[in-house]
Amino acid sequence: MxxxxxxxxxxxxxxxxxxxxxxxxxxxxxxxxIIITDHNVKKIYGGLFPEAPVxxxxxxxxxxxxxxxxxxxxxxxxxxxxRAGFVLAIGGGVVCDVAGFLASIYMRGIRCGxxxxxxxxxxxxxxxxxxxxxxxxxxxxxxTIRQPEFVICDPAILLTLPEQEYLSGLAELIKTAIIGxxxxxxxxxxxxxxIEARDSDLLTTLVAKSVKFKGMVVSxxxxxxxxxxxxxxxxxxxxxxxxxxxxxHGFAVAxxxxxxxxxxxxxxxxxxxxxxxxxxxxxxxxxxTRFDLTDEQMKDLVFHDxxxxxxxxxxxxxxxxxxxxxxxxxxxxxxxxxxxxRDK
Length: 344
Description:
Helix 3 packs across helix 4 (119-125). It contains 13 helices and 12 strands. The longest helix is centred in the middle third of the chain and has 21 residues, at 200-220. By secondary structure, the protein is an alpha/beta fold. Helix content is 45%, strand content 20%. Helix 3 links the parallel strand 5 and strand 6. The protein has 2 domains: 2-159, Rossmann fold (3-Layer(aba) Sandwich), CATH 3.40.50.1970; 163-206 and 222-342, Dehydroquinate synthase-like - alpha domain (Dehydroquinate synthase-like, alpha domain, Up-down Bundle), CATH 1.20.1090.10. Strands 1-2-9-6-5-3-4 form a 7-stranded mixed β-sheet. The relative contact order is 0.11.
C-alpha cells in the first residue's frame, strides 16, 4: 500500500493506493456516518459495507443533478446528520462527485471520504477535491472544490468493473501520461496483456503514478487558475462529445485527445512520430473512436464550457509525451480546427 498526501490550504487528503477497501471502517468516526453509493455497487458490495445508513443512486450521469443533491440533503437531515456527520462515498466518479458536493454544502460543510470503485475514479475523479453536478447540457457547472479526508484505491475492486467502465478509466491514465509522465506512458505501452488482465500489482503502480502527478498539480494550484488546467487535455472536445452523444467519459476524452494531438501537430509542437505514438496507444485499447458533431452543436457546447473566458478558451496542447502547456486561444480558432479535422 502507498499513501500519497495532498496538501492544500486548510486541508490534507490521504490517497491510499493498494489498500483493501474493507478497511475503510477504521477511518470512520464512531457514529453519524452515512454512505452514498449507486445501485450497481450496492448490489455487488453492499453486504460488506460498514454499519451505517445507505443512500443509493441510479448509476450514470443522470444522477448528477442539483435535484438529486437536494433530495440527499433532505435524507441526511431526516437521518439526524448534523455538523459532526461524515459522508462516505463508495462508488465511481458520479457517486464521488455528488457525495463530495453534498458534503461540501450540507450545513456549510461536513467531513467526507471516498472508496473509489472504478479506475476512472481512482486515477482522476476522486482526487483533487472537485465536486459538482451538471446544469442541463453543461458538465459540472455547479460545484465546489473541497478535499476528501481520504480516498481508498483498491485494485481488487476493479475486477468486477464492466469492460467499458475499465477502459474509460484507462483513457484518463493515458491522458496523465501524455501531459506529465513519460515513464507512465511507456509502462502502459509495454504492458498491454497485464492491463487487459487487470493485474493488481501493475494497476497499483499505474494508479499511484497517476495520483502522484495529479496530487503535485493540485497542491500547487487547487483552484485551477494556472497549472491545474493541463489536466483538461482532451476535455474541450471530450465534454462536448460526452454530453451530445451520451458516451462514457473516458471514451469521449480519448476522442478529444486525438483531436488535441492533431491540433498540437498542426501547430508544430509535436512530430508526426509522437502524434502517431499517442493515437496508436489509444487505438490499441479501442479508445480512439471518432465522434462527429455538427458546427452548431460544437459551437453551442464550447461556448458553455467552463474553460471559456469571453471569446477565448484555455486549450491544452501536448509538446511531446510527458509535456503539456495551456494556451488561451480564440474560440473561433478551436472551432475552425475542429471543422477542418471533422472534414478529413
